[in-house]
Amino acid sequence: MASFKQKRIKKELMQLIKKPPPGISVDMSCIDNDLAQWTMKLDGFKNTLYDGESFKLLFRFVGEYPFESPIVTFTGDNIPIHPHIYSNGHICLSILSTEWSPSLSVESVCISIVSMLCSCRDKRRPPDDERHVKFANENPKLTNWYFHDDSV
């Protein structure tokens, strides 16, 4: 019998396949058999700094999803250059750590990240990128985040 976690993940996946938000899609070739890991494709929106670019987000559902946030990182050859995205793919976004709520979903996380990209005015890495990449745990949820100002 499928667990609550499995039912929720499957429901979210089916919704994203049937009715994906603009610029967001599921990479069906990157979903494992137990749905514990998926890759989402995000397209940069027109008239933004990321116009014409595509990015991949890796979602890993560990622990007690949806009561615990998924592990979400950018992956692949094109990690966005953004003041809240580290060069190792870690994303400094409060809903992925301290502000997670079970009412959030893969779709809402993707939309938040797209919104973050769309509002960017200056392509640059976080000021502590080099140190973070050198010392951070592979799992960004085990990172003690310093949330830099949101003036970007």
UniProtKB/TrEMBL annotation:
Its EC number is 2.3.2.23, 2.3.2.25. Transmembrane segments: none annotated. One of its GO terms (molecular function) is ubiquitin conjugating enzyme activity. It is an enzyme of class 2 (transferase). This is N-terminal E2 ubiquitin-conjugating enzyme. InterPro entries: Ub_conjugating_enzyme (IPR050113), UBC (IPR000608), UBQ-conjugating_enzyme/RWD (IPR016135). Keywords: Transferase, Ubl conjugation pathway. It catalyses: S-ubiquitinyl-[E1 ubiquitin-activating enzyme]-L-cysteine + [E2 ubiquitin-conjugating enzyme]-L-cysteine = [E1 ubiquitin-activating enzyme]-L-cysteine + S-ubiquitinyl-[E2 ubiquitin-conjugating enzyme]-L-cysteine; S-ubiquitinyl-[E1 ubiquitin-activating enzyme]-L-cysteine + [acceptor protein]-N-terminal-amino acid = [E1 ubiquitin-activating enzyme]-L-cysteine + N-terminal-ubiquitinyl-[acceptor protein]. SMART domains: UBCc (SM00212). One of its GO terms (biological process) is protein ubiquitination. Residues 4-152 form the UBC core domain. The gene is 106080679.
